[in-house]
Amino acid sequence: GVVVRSVPDKRTFFVKPDNGERQPFTYKPDKVEVTLDGKEAGPDAIDEGQRAEIGYKKVTTKKDREVNVAKSINLESKSGSAGDESTG
Fold first, then answer.
1. pTM for the whole structure
2. Cys-Cys crosslink for 16: which of 22, 50, 60, 76, Cβ 3.0 to 4.6 Å?
3. Distance between alpha carbon 78 and the CA centroid of its chain, in Å?
4. Residue 74 pLDDT
5. pLDDT band per the 50, 70, 90 thresholds, residue 78
6. In angstroms, what CA-CA distances link 11 with 7, 70, 74, 88?
7. Which DSSP letter does residue 9 get?
8. Exposed e or buried b for every residue in 15-33, given b needs 16+ CB within 10 A?
9. Phi-psi bin for 81: left (phi > 0), alpha (psi -120 to 50), beta?
């Protein structure tokens, strides 16, 4: 999907899958594995407009709410090379 919103101070970001509603994900900076274009990065690399592939787990909070906790985040930079973009 595509990152549509990032709230670093709340450790939350929102991803809109190619075929669905946007989904919120939370993360723990010390426990999430982030890559940007295949290279190791930190959660501060999450930016709106990037393509993202999320490995996550559904967790039920103490208040019985289900949240998506990101375990791994694979990001692609927004620029990309012209050869990578599909037209049509």
1. 0.83
2. 22
3. 13
4. 98
5. confident
6. 6, 10, 16, 35
7. G
8. beeeeeeeeebbbeeeebe
9. beta
Q: Quick check: 7 and 13 in contact, CB under 8 A?
A: yes
Buried/exposed 57-83: b ≥16 CB within 10 Å, e otherwise: eeeeeeeeeeebebeebbbbeeeeeee
Whose structure tokens read 């501060």? 44
Question: Percentage of residues in the chain with pLDDT exceeding 90?
Answer: 84
Q: What is the DSSP string of 50-86?
A: -EEEEEEEEEE-TTS-EEEEEEEEEEE-SS--GGG--
